[in-house]
Input
Amino acid sequence: MPTVAHVGLLLLTLDLPACNSLKDKRRVLSSLLSRIRREMHISAAEVGLHDRHRSSVVAFALLSGARAQVERLRDRIERFVEGEPRLVVVEREWTWL
Output
């Protein structure tokens, strides 16, 4: 039986309306990404809009032998991020790799 790996990339564009400096933004994103990495055991990083203190693009790499597991993780990440009161998800991009 062949080995199968399902890999997905989730990009979320975020608005951080309460952040008044890059330091504020870094604090919010660091906390969020650390919690996601720790609780869900996935790769997560800020990948865009580094120089804007009220916007960000974050990426999540998901990998599993089961496609359904990747989809469940994606949904869980989206709910987790949407539950963060200090930010708003303004755009989502999902890609199977």
Observations:
- The CA atoms of residues 44 and 60 lie 5 Å apart.
- DSSP finds two helices and four strands in the chain.
